Amino acid sequence: MSYAVAVDIGGTFTDLVGYDHVNRRVVYTKSATTYGDFVAGILDCFAKAGLTPEQANSLNHGTTLVINAFIQRRGAKAALVTTKGFRDLLEIARANRPDPFDLHYRRDEPLIPRSLRLEVAERIDTNGAVVEPLDVEALEEIAAQLRRLEVESVAVFFMNSFANPAHEELAAARLRELLPDVYITHSTDLTREWYEYERTSTAAANAYVGPQVARYVRQLETDMKDRGFSGSLFMMGSNGGLLSVERTCRQPVALVESGPIGGCIGAGAYAEALGFKNLVAFDMGGTTAKCALVENGRFNVESIYYAGGYVQGFPIKSPVIDIVEVGSGGGSVAWLDPLNRLHVGPRSAGSTPGPVCYGRGGVEATVTDANLVLGRLNADRFLGGELKLDTEGARRAIAALAEPLGYAGESGMLRMADGVLSLATIIMAGAIRQVSVEHGLDPRDFVLFSYGGGGPLHAAALARELSIPVVVIPPAPGNFSAVGMLLADARIDLSTTFTGVLSEGVMAAVQSAFGKMESEAAASLQKEFGAQEVFFERYVEMRYLGQRHNIKVPAMDVGDLAAIRSAFEHDYKRRYGHADAKNPAELQALHLTALARQRRPDLASLPQIGGPGDGPSSRRIYFGDANGFLNADVYERSALAPGFCANGPAVIEEYGSTTLVGPHDRFEIGPLREIRIHCSTKRETI
Amino acid sequence: MTDATTIDPITLEVIRYGLISATNQIDANIKRTAFSPYIYEYNDFAVGLTDMDGRLVAQCTGGMPPFVADSVGTAVRDGLLIYGRDRLHYGDVVVCNHAAVQGQHLNNTVMYTPIVANPDGSGPLIGFFAINVHWIDIGGTMTHSNDIFMEGLQLRSVKMWSKGEPIEEVYRIIENNTRLPAELMGDIQAQLAGCFLGRDLVAALAQRYGLPTFHEAVRLILDQAEAAARAHILALPDGVYEHETWLDNDGEGDEPVPIKVRVVIEGDEMTVDYTGIADQAKGSINSGYHGGGLTTARVAFRYLVAPDEPANEGLFRPLKLILPQGKILSADPTAPMANYPMPFPTVIDAVIKALEKALPERVTGGHFATHSGFRLYGRRADGRIFNGHDSGHGGWGACATHDGAGPFRTMAHGDTRLIPLELQERLLPFRIESFSLRPDSGGPGKFRGGMGFEKRYRILEPCLLHTNLDRTNHPAWGVLGGKEARPGSVFVEKPNGVRIPMNKARGDMLDAGDLVILETGGGGGYGPPEARDLALIQRDVDEGYVSLAAAKQDYSVLSDEGGRLTRP
Fold first, then answer.
1. B432 contacts in A (CB within 8 Å)?
2. Fewer beta carbons under 10 A from the terminal one: N or C of chain A?
3. Which residues in chain A are contacts of B425 at CB distance < 8 A?
């Protein structure tokens, strides 16, 4: 008996999903994340699941290690070696102030301080020609200096290296010889697109986390092997694909969104299996809500990511699934400003002290408290009964918030709790509108696919706010991120800056650039995953001649100029409302996605299936548009078989999550035991 | 609303979020659909909602700071004067860029459309959805101008659409009065689509809650903003506060341009008095009463007093302006205005400086405060025309809690990113030899001012240089005992070593091999240098932000052989 295993280490819990391909058997477990020794938490999950490491033939692993190192500033002592005259690029950044009215605005400090940014003579021009050769001898003095400074890692970045990486490669190789114990990385090993600040920032970020990630992954591999694991360890990349241990150690920045990626992969797989053309993947946890679009089973991959956010943080040029995040989660605090205006979030009570109802010392009312007092959560079954919720505490906190606004007594308290949820809904709806509007899409054409601890509880109200007709809740929504990791393929994304007018003349060069990237990617996938069959997706970034905005369009057949042109015009028209058939178009960048399919679990075998049970019980739940409590049927999810359907109001409970169905909604259980809520156009709140 | 409808506080918040969300959604849509980098790269636009009298109710949270001062409402009110409510119909679209209305350069064009109560176009007028966009080119001279008529096409409250139909003649006028018709017509399309979509979103919100509730919510949103602003001002000590500084010149003559501001705090009202400011200039640094005077006062007010409050008409009710006609900030509508925002950063900063004693926790040292425009243009060997704008970003002032930041663009700019050097080198005939922070450029103080930068361009083909760098005689000041910063400069260094100052080059010829050195100013310090933490001085010297010589002079420190600093 052997299992494919996925482990997702989050801030609070470590989730494990194991799948036996032969017997189509699935196991889910959750265990507290063990800081300081993550492996202990993983092994604890194995034990809880009744598995041993020998039984695992593969281990897919997602971690928030990289992003946490950036945010908590717990990376290596890193240095930068760069072109003479340019060591301050990292600090000057793009010289913008994203928050226009903050007089005291400042960006987070650069990852590498000025005194650790060293310069060497060399220069390459925009076309890749050498203007000044690299002073290789000077590297010896630089290496001596770096040794004295006791740096743990070095990033190499040179101007215009995107056009010719020779100097960077030479310098990195020489520094490796001179500093064998130091982690060395160079910008063109991470990105081949232009823009010096983004490239130097990427190299710096990679150097900053490199030693730590390499240590962690190697240690994990060793520890698991020591306990009998003989399968392959793969890491979850931010592009939604699996990465080999070797690649992870070389390009740790590719793990920056490793944590939340699983849910998006899972959403894509379900969309494909259930035949949903477009869906919004919506994940609501304790502190934030995240959403991403999945079109035709594909999630959108961006080639830039801002660690620490666009306002304060720094860019990383690395393929990352396009996820929009808002500060609205179960722990979001509801508060009044000095003028008694009500706000929800973005501040969160987190998991400690957490919402008032956790009874861990929290005193400010949160979204979870509002859900509890309205009867939407079962105080005795939270996290399978592991945490008893304090309803009275939650009621007091909400009443304290309601009183200054003139909402008195029991009815005022309930009205307030309902108001807090309405406001949270509006804020989350804003995030979904943003991600759709930015792509020129209408949320009404999408299915809302919701998971995470809080997603299923809020999804129906959110769908009504956005006029989305159908909500889908997958099995095991509380473990869904780990489920998604089991469904991932091996994937490499490569891109390169390429400028030229779209014409027969340049296509040979385009073909050869793609050819080069394809052989590189295929060789890597063959080597790292033993992949025999590799699928390629080609995209070109282009625009009308002289414009500044690029559009990324598929270019499967590079020889078919007309098809590329027509794909471009189609997208252009969707975006701008018109297209110009006469105007020449120019290319700006080439993107390649290389995929090697991995064996996927059968989605039909993922749900937990229980006995038919005693039928529904019932509970009183407050609904705003009913202006009071209604009797709602309470179902045990594992008891509901495909084809079952019923009217709301209803609650469907399972371990780690609760699904709420509004009074005028109807729900059914679909072929993969997913819950489908058909939302009425009638409003639940206000 | 005489018969005050009661509205519960939660519904009010839901409507407030709904209105801001509508303007932000249109903001995202405009950026996505716009053609010109002015919009999606420089954010040179603003999206707003006004009530039926043209009072600003909600505005998008991003965009350019000078647009915060209700640029859209001014245009709507002019349309109401000209047409009256009765002649503004559902499906009409009006544009306005007139100097007598907005009082800024003519590129800033407001477009708006009436919102009525019902989505089918019936029902009473409830407001206007308006978008101000920097039109990429509206004709006019490319260099300098003597009056507004040299600066392009003026449209004063002109309908582009009537009752849902475009007016083709107006389109033809616009299309034939621009150098870049494809780009401009594309941007206009985005602006138009934004107006219609915004109108429909707001109408849907009004319909959902009912007109009486909607109107009452709007009234309360404005009143609450006013109350918030008054509460902030009330907390300030009453008094009369002043500051005077000078711009180097107006770009034409060589006379200093006085910028003298007076601020009166009295109870819960604040008055900005620009009586002492320079008279209307010959150079094109003029702006109108609304586009200049009111705008700078409101931007300063927002920076200092109410940065977190959403911009609307209520927020600015307690702010009064004293500004006689005929000043650079209240120029005649015929005055040249092409370079209208040039004094803005200095004016805004002077208001902040004036209040240093009243608001010690909020004020900052002065910032470099000059647009420091930098343009290289000409014709390549193969005949292609090139025209590259670069700009100077400088140091910002220190504040009560930390050193000044930057280099950033000025206080009159928002989220404007500098153009990547690798892109510039691909498009323009120069190579950047270095781009670095300028040590010692930040003003000393308990907290040090931010640094400017130094950028060296090696010219590879003959070209023309246009620059606009000011504040060299009166650089960024310190506050509360902090010291002033170093100013910026532009020099051209010829291959024979001769250095020529070119702070205000007007098409000066450069040859291949010339080196252009652009240095930008720093920001001013906060608090006396004696109060600076020794560890911070040590850090500055170790990191090279401050030279050892400057540290010794400005902070009176001593250094041992190991480089360790001590105070005598």
1. 85, 159
2. N
3. 125-126, 160
Q: Hey, are the CB atoms on A426 and B364 less than 8 Å from each other?
A: no
Closest CA to A264 of A234, A296, A297: A297
Closest chain B residue to A572 measured between Cα atoms? B33
The answer to whether residues B471 and B504 touch, using CB atoms and an 8 Å cutoff, is: no
**Domain limits of chain B?**
9-228, 364-532
Q: For chain B (length 568 residues), average pLDDT per consecutive 10?
A: 64 88 84 74 84 91 72 93 96 96 91 93 95 90 83 96 97 94 87 92 91 94 94 94 96 93 97 97 94 94 87 94 97 93 96 96 96 87 81 94 95 86 92 97 98 97 94 97 97 96 92 97 98 98 97 96 92
Phi–psi pair at A240, nearest 5 degrees: 85, 10
Number of Cβ pairs closer than 8 Å across A and B? 189
Q: Which long-range contacts (CB under 8 A, 24 or more apart) does B205-212 make?
A: B205/B15, B205/B18, B205/B19, B205/B22, B206/B115, B206/B117, B206/B126, B207/B117, B207/B118, B207/B119, B209/B11, B209/B15, B211/B117, B211/B124, B211/B126, B212/B1, B212/B5
Instruction: Look at A405 and B307 and tell me if their CB atoms are within 8 Å.
Output: no
Question: Is the bond preceding residue A649 a cis peptide, omega within 30 degrees?
Answer: yes
Residue in chain B lying closest to A198 (CA): B420
* Residue to test with chain A: of B13, B67, B187, B224, most A Cβ within 10 A: B13
Give the ipTM of the model, two decimals please. Answer: 0.92
| Beta-strand pair A232-236/A56-63 | parallel
- Domains, chain A, in order of start with CATH, read 75-214 (3.40.1360), 490-596 (3.30.1490), 605-678 (no CATH)
**Which of B10, B408, B433 has its CB closest to that of A419?**
B10
- Kind and range of the H or E run holding B349: helix B344-354
